[in-house]
C-alpha cells in the first residue's frame, strides 16, 4: 500500500524525496484515501471504500481501545442500519441492538400517541414507513466496525497518529502526523472524520458557526423491568417530577433488559449531582411502575382512555434496578461552511452537530459516509469531474442544513408555546406538539425522515427524467422491495446497494420464471444490452412490484439508494444519459443526453443557491423565521 509521502512537502519530511509522476488522465489513482478519525463514521467510510477496491489509511489518534459506556447509545434508522449491515456488522446489530416494537408519547398520566412498528419478517424486512430503528451502545458498533476493518486487506488503521499538518496539490494530498507512528502520509484524497474539534477542519480554516448548548440532558443506563417491554417512551410533564410544562423524560430499551433514560434539563448550567440523578431515576421508575398495579403493558394503560391511574398502587414504590452508567449530554447545533476543499473533505461531527428533538447526528454522519464513498470510488478508479465531487457538499450539507433549520424553528415553538403562534409557523404543526416532538425519534417529517436530494447536481438532464412513474420522487430513497438478482437469488433491494448503479425492472409474475432461463425472458435481453452500454458499472435486478409502478417500469438507483429516475420500458439513450449524469458527466455528453454539464455547473443546478440559503439555517432563533404573537 502506498502510504508514505512520495513528494517533498517541506523540510519536516523524514523520508527520501521521490519525484511524483502523475497518472494519465482517466486512469485510477495509486495513493490510498486517508481517513482522519476512527469513530463510526471514519471506520464505516474506510470499510465502504475498501469494498469498492479503494485502499485506505485510517489515522487514529487513540490507542484503538473503545471505552465501554452503556449510556452512550446510537439510534440507526432503517437506511443507515442497512448500510452498516452491508459493511459486515449485521451480527452486531442483531446481538447488541434492539428493534423497538412501538413508541409511546405520554403527557402527565395520559397516553397521547402510540406508534406500533411493523413486525419483522424472516428476511429482516418491514414496511419502510413503520420499520423500527435499531438502538445499541455506540461502543458495540465501533468495535464491530473495527473488527470488520481488520479483515480488509485494503484498509490499515494506524493508532497513536495525531494529525499535525496538511498540504495538497493537483495530484494528491499529504498529511503529517505526530506520535509513535508520526510521519508524512501521501494520499489521493483525505476525509476529516475527527469529530467536533476537528483538526482537519481547523487546518483547512473552515468556519463552524452555530448554536451552543441547544439542549442538555441527564442520561442514565440501568437494568430493570419496565411495564412496556420493547417499547420506547417519551413522557412529557411526568406528574412525579413536578409536571412542569417543559419537563420531559424518555426511556428507550436496549438489549439485555437495559434501558437508557434521558431527562431534559432546564436552560442554564444546572449541576447534576449523583444524588439528584438517583432521585430522578427513582421518581421516574416509581411513576411508571408503582402507580400502575396492573401494569400498563396493554395498549391503552389501565384506564379506557390510555391514562395512568391516579392511585399509588399496591406494588413497591420503586422497582429494583441496577445503575450501569450515567452522564450529561449537551446538544450543539453547528454546520461547517465548506465540506470540500480540493482533495480534502469533512464528514460526520467534523462537518455538522445536531441532536435536539430526537435528531440523530450519527445517522447523518453515516449518510455522509455512504454518499461520499461511492463518489470517491468512482474518482479513484476512473477519475471524476468536480460536479461529482462537489455534489457531496450540495447534497449532504443541504440535507443537514434543512434538518437544523427545522429543529431550530421547532425548538422555541415546542418548548415555549406561549412566545409564538406555533401553528402558523411550523409546517405540519396542526398535527399536534406531541407528534412533532416524536418526529425526530421516529424518523419522519422534516426532523427525521431520510433526506431527498431533489436539487442534486447529479440529476438527469432536462427531458430525460422520465416523469413521475412511481411513488418515489427522484432524489428520494427507494423502497426496500424484494428483488431477484442475476444468480436467481431473491434478496432485498438494499442488500445490493453500495457497488454501482442498480437497474431495476418491474415485471409482475417473475416469481414463477424458471431461474435458469430468466435472463433470456421478456425484456431481459434488451435490458441487459442497454445496461452493458452504460458509462458506469451497473447491476440488473427484477422485482414483481414497486409502489406506484406499472409493468415494465425501469428504475435507475444510485449506489447510496436514491432514485435517479423511472422510465417506461427499456430506453437505452435515456438510461445512458441518466447514468452519465450520476457520474457527474465526467467524460462529456452521451448521445441523446441533452446538454452536457460542465464541471462548474454545480451552482447553476442548485448547489450554490442552496449554499447561500444554508448559511442562515443555524442562526440563533428569534429572527425573522419566527412570528411573535402580539400582546
Structure characterization notes:
- Keywords: FAD, Flavoprotein, Monooxygenase, Oxidoreductase.
- GO terms for molecular function: FAD binding; oxidoreductase activity, acting on paired donors, with incorporation or reduction of molecular oxygen, NAD(P)H as one donor, and incorporation of one atom of oxygen.
- Residues 32-404 form the FAD-binding domain.
- It comes from Streptomyces nigrescens.
- Residues 288-312, 584-631 are annotated as: Disordered.
- Mean pLDDT is 81; it is low at 4-26, 292-315, 417-424 and 587-631.
- The protein has 631 residues and is an alpha+beta fold.
- The chain starts with 32 loop residues before the first strand and ends in a 17-residue tail after the last helix.
- The radius of gyration is 26 Å and the shape is globular.
- It contains twelve helices and 26 strands.
- Helix content is 25%, strand content 23%.
- The chain has an eight-stranded mixed beta sheet with strand order 6-5-14-15-16-13-17-20, with helices on both faces.
- Helix 6 packs antiparallel against helix 7.
- The chain folds into four domains: 1-77 and 133-207 and 336-381, FAD/NAD(P)-binding domain (3-Layer(bba) Sandwich), CATH 3.50.50.60; 211-330, D-Amino Acid Oxidase, Chain A, domain 2, CATH 3.30.9; 385-457 and 599-631, no CATH class; 482-596, 3-Layer(aba) Sandwich (Glutaredoxin), CATH 3.40.30.
- Strand 9 (162-168) and strand 10 (173-178) form a beta hairpin.
